[in-house]
Amino acid sequence: TFHKFLASNKTWHKTTSSSNPDLFPSLAKGQAPPLLWLGCSDSRCPETTLCGAQPGDIFVHRNIANVVSPHDMSSQSVIYYAINALKVSHVVVCGHTSCGGVAAALGNGKIGGTLDAWLYPLRELRAGLAKEEEGWERLGEKEKAVKLVEANVKKGVAVVRRNPEVVKAVEERGVGVHGV
Questions:
Q1: pTM for this structure?
Q2: What is the mean pLDDT of residues 16-25?
């Protein structure tokens, strides 16, 4: 499989170089994407494919279940760099259906390794939904998962909007923060 991917990469490079000869020389000069994408690590959700984008169009941070936390130095560093160095115009927090991290957070069982700690904020969010959402207990697992994904995106957007660098960029440059 690994060798297949390497061969495919060579084919992609050759095809892309032929169809868009300016792309790679342009990318070698640096990046100036208009968008920061905060999404899930799920291999079924490649942002460039989903958005019909090209290399260099989207600056990306992905993690399991798309947890956006003000305490996560990785995501906060990405946000800082995207806002201050790349000067992105938009930040997108994207959730998705059939998320394995969300499915795990719906349960209370031990997952193992660092995943229990990583998904703890989602489990707290789920507990809050169970208390606040009328009829939560009557919902099926798919409906609960969708509601948890939506709540996680809303929470992620709120975290991004409270980031001091983003607050400043919204005020000074009109940076947009979006949840999808």
A1: 0.93
A2: 94
Sequence-ordered strand ranges (E) for 27-165: 35-40, 58-63, 90-93
**Phi, psi values for residue 166, rounded to 5°:** -70, -45
Q: Just list the catalytic residues.
A: 40, 42, 44, 96, 99
Kind and range of the H or E run holding 176 = strand 176-179
List the one residue out of 91, 102, 117 whose CA is nearest residue 42.
102
Count of C-beta atoms within a 10 Å radius of residue 31: 13
For β-strands 35-40 and 58-63, DSSP reports them as: parallel
63-79 pLDDT, tens digit per residue, is 999 999 999 999 999 99
Which residue has tokens 């992905």?
62
